[in-house]
Fold this protein.
Amino acid sequence: MLSNSMEFRPRNYIAEKQAHALPRSRADDHPLSAPSSLPHPQVEVVDDGDTDYLDPLRRSDNNAAVVSREDSEGIETSSASGISSEASIQNPSKEWVSFKRSLMQRFPVSKTVLTSSMSDVIVKGRKTYDKSSTNMHLEELEDPEKFAEEGGKVITGQEYVSRLHELKAEINHTWHADDRVTSLKLSIKVAKLLMDTSILQCYPTLFVLATDIMDMLGDMVWERIKLKAELAEDGTKLCLLPENFMASDICSDAKETCNNWFSKIGAIRELLPRIYLELALLPCWRFLHDRPLDCLQRLVMMIRGLADPLASAYCRLYMAHCLRKLHSHDIGCLLTCVNDFKILLMRVISAKETFHGNLTENKRLLISLMEPTIDYIMKCIFKNVSERQVNDVLVELGLGSNQVELRGRFPCASIILHHLVKQLPSQVVSSSAMEIIRLIESSNDDSYDQCLNYRLLGFRLCERKSEMGTVNAVVDKVIQVITQYEGLDEYLKVVDAYVDIVLQNHMDDHLNSILEGISNRACSQGIAEDELTTLQSILVKLLSYYEDLQDVIAMTPFLKILDLMHGSSQSIVNMQILDMGIRNGCIRDPTTIQFLFEISQALHDDEIFVNVKDDSNQAARLISSFVSLVDYGAELESHLTFLVECRAAFGSIHWLKETLVRSSNCLAIKALKDGNRHISFIKSCVAFSEVTLPSISAQTKQLNLYLETAEVALLGGLVSHSDGLIDSAINSLQILEAMDGPRTPIDADGILSSIQKLFSLLVMVPGNPEHGVTFYPKNLVSVVNSQPWMTPRMRVKIFCAVVSLLAALSQRDLPYHADKGKLLGNDILFFGHSSYLSELALMCKFVLKNLVDTIQQEPSKAARGSMALEACNCIASSFIPSQEISSICSNLIETGKSCMDTSHPYLLSTIKFMDHLLLPSVAV
């Protein structure tokens, strides 16, 4: 008996379980087994055509057909109309803007610029610097002495760029002020700047800014002439020119204006500015001729008169840009430009002294500056060409002996060949791979590294499936070539491109040869920083191909190469190995476990790993996953030893500590399930967890792991260990506020769940005769009342859990026991003792008072009503109906009625439950 008015309700848990169990019947098939071959009745779906409801998982065939047809028609229309449509016009413009941006990023302006005498338009009004007394990094300039003699001036790179922007704004302003003569004069001065190639590194930026001005002038001239063609002198509208107008549609006044502009440009003495300005006005030839491309061919011949290779290269680049404005697919002029490039490059390569007289060692710099021009022109040539046209292009370039074959009989500059192979359609590359190999062999010059052409061919071959015979022949030839390479860098660059082909076609002999080649060169030369990235790419591809890590470990050269790597590249490869190792689940092979452990150590010791926080550390996640997947089977002691080694090796990984504790607890449970009890081993597992747990920084996880370990200790009959762990759990709960700060809703729910789990665990924990059976519940209630972050809702749920715990402890038979009943519970140790029931009664009265008071503290009416009904149900389920219990429950129901609608389902169900269990006075 609790008191004269309160008594716990006796419970028969076995009978209740049977009464509430659902009826069961044996099934013929397992619910997760494969479906039988018997036909199942099909549900006929009737589509009544109602489109009011849009099912996201249903596809309308009619709509799909319409969309498909519209898409295909749009593609055909766009293809047929060429680039005359608005969309097609915008696309080249966007490509050109993107190209210019990348050009300026690749070749940024120097900190200082030494201008020549022809750059007066730049230095005018600008602060210049005396070259003899300045620290303006003149070593970046090609020949400062030469320019000193000619009176060159030094300005900053930023001022150089700013002045060009100012010139653009000035030209635009004078044009709109009807001072078109000044606009033209300034434009000519800007075009003359492109004659100065002494500032090599800055030339691409100069080209971009100057051609922006040229394009602006060309657009303004076009609009002026078009306006004259459409309007009379008095402003009367004569016509609206169609997009595809003819020269005959243009009035004589507009033609005269157009001729006047070309005459002014033709009067420019210098060849380069005359070409640039006529290219800027190239679309205006449409006002005079129906075939403006005829004029372009003349300009192509004029460009041949430019002696400077850099100036002529960028002039051809601007010509390719202006050609796209004519809405023509004629690429004859571009092919002529490429053939001219071949001659020009051969002269640059073979010259003993270059055009500036002091750039013999900088031929590569000059060629690298010319490379973007070749790349862009090649893209323009191969844009939207058919396979038949590709063969014609190759013949025009002197690389094909007839209309259907690509033969490597004609030498070609290596850099031109590179960008040709880069733009060729993949089917042409695949079918002509051996011919391209022969071209690469015959094009071994200083314009481009030959190994990069072999590399490019490999990547292009990966784009589509090639015939096995072709693949074998290409790989055999490439392996022969790279075997002659002494340097590791060249070797790796080519191998990186072909390793996918080797793996996909199961060329094991070649793979072993490649790895041996890398290993030998790396051992003798070491691995430089720039070589590590390429080597990383090769090894990652290798690891991605294999499913079983044992296949990789069996490759001796692979392990040698891995040992020679260092830095972030080695860490990336190690992460890939770890990911591969955990991909297939449990890891049982001792050799694999040791290998992955060493990989994890190398990964953990890397400086980059140390500086990354756990929240974003993929390596830490991989190591934790590896440790959790290790399984030594029946060798439990070996597994525990492994966990000890992991704790010592990876102590800085917070996730891993949680993994180690869980793995140790699993080992203890596995030992318990064994026929032999292994008590000493279970003690070792629990002791390992006890040592590891205090170092876990996440308090909520630490609390849960304390409870999990306490349960494991209790199942093993280690009561003293479980008591200590429960004490530690309560202590961690007590300092939770100080460690973690304010609770978030999610954290609060997790803590509440952990506390409720602790109360369920206390059902199995034998009471301490010295401290009493309510020692832990009292401590928990004290902690709950002392924590300011505990909300009334949390307190009510915790107090209800205490009531349920005390009700369970009062029963003759507990609902469950630890260690399958071998560990004596409170029902065996204390049931029937008057002091035992008295202790439970006093504790229960204290908790009920706290429970009722806490409910009234809740400010939200809806929450207060719900909490009152929850407490009422808990009390009614735990106690035999009595006057005191009825009074408490009646007050709680009244609280619920005052806070909730009288028709609320929860309120009605609670009243019905009370009507069934308690005194009639509480029924409504």
Notes: DSSP finds 43 helices and two strands in the chain. The chain has a mean pLDDT of 82.
